[in-house]
Amino acid sequence: MVATKQILKWILGFFVLSFLFFVLVRTIPGDPVSRLLTTYQLPYTKENIEFLTVSFGLDKPLWYQYGYWIVHFVQGDWGQSFITGNDVRTEILRRVPISLTVGLGGVLLGGMAAFILGYLAACKPKGFWDKFSRGVALFVQSVPSFMIAVFLIYLLTVHFQLLKIYSNLATATLLAALLVALGTAGELCRVMRGHFLEIADSSYIFFARCRGFEKNKLLLHDGFRPALIALISTMVGRFSWVIGGTAVVEFVFAIPGVSLFLVESISVKDYNIIQSYLLFILLWMGVVHAVCNVIIYFLRGGIR
Q1: Of 261, 265, 258, 262, which is closest to residue 242 (Cα–Cα)?
Q2: What is the mean pLDDT of the chain?
Q3: What integer is the mean pLDDT of 8-16?
Q4: Can you give the C-alpha Rg of the chain in angstroms?
Q5: Is residue 243 exposed (0-12), middle (13-18) or buried (19+ Cβ within 10 Å)?
Q6: How far is CA 12 from CA 2, 17, 189, 199, 278, in A?
Q7: Spatial distance between the Cα atoms of 110 and 117, rounded to a whole number of angstroms
Q8: How far apart are CA 150 and CA 41, in angstroms?
C-alpha cells in the first residue's frame, strides 16, 4: 500500500513538473523561428515565419502544445530538433554514456576517496590525514573547478606537452572524471570524518574498546556499514547530478556529452531538446533515488 502511494505520488509529481518545465522553457528569451531563419540564412518574410511556426506546431495554444508533447514523450517519441531536424531521443541517448562516464565515474571514485580519507582522519584526529583531508576540502571549496581544469590543460598540454587533450576523447574524459572525483572527495571527506567520529563515540564501540579491541579496527569492522549508509545517503544528490552537473568540465575539455549539448540547445532556443533533457534528468533522479533506497534498505537489514 505504501509503495503504491509512493508510485502514484511520483507519477503525479512527474506530470506536474513536466508542465512546469514546459512553461519555463517557453519563457527563455528569444524566438526559435527567428533563430532558425538566422541559422539557415533565410529572409525574414511573413511566409517563412508562418511556415516554420505552423511546421513546429508553435501556432497552437500552449495547453495543446504541452498535451501533444507529453503524450508523445511517454510513448517514446521525443520529437525532432528544431535546428538539426534529428530525433531528440537519439541525440540525447547518444551522448548520455559520455556524461555518465565523466559524472558517475568521477562521483564513485570521489566517494571511495572520501570514505577512505574520512576513516583515516577519524582514526587520528589532528594527525596527518586529518590535516590533509581538511586541506583538500578547503582547496575544493576555494578554487572553482573550471580554474583547476584550465590549469591542468595548460600544465599537461602546453607546458610539459605530455598529453593531447582536445584530439583524444579518452584522455579528456579521464581528466574530467578525475576533476569530478576531486570535487566529490573534497566535499564529502570531512562529512565522512564526522560520521566516523560519531560511530567512535557510540556505546557498542565504547564497550568493545573496554574489552581490549583496537579503535581503528573497530571503526573499520563494526562501523563500515553505518558509515557506508551515511555515505550513500549523502551522495544521493551527487548521483542525481552526474548527468546534468558536468556541463563545466564538458565545456572546458570539449567533451561531446549531454550537458554540453544542453548548453548549445539553450543558445539556439531548441525547445524540444531542452524539455526532453529536463524530463530525462527527472527520470534519472527517480531511478537513482530508488536504487539508493534499495541499497540502504539491505544494508540496514544487515545491521539488524
Answers
A1: 258
A2: 84
A3: 83
A4: 24
A5: buried
A6: 15, 9, 37, 39, 16
A7: 10
A8: 35
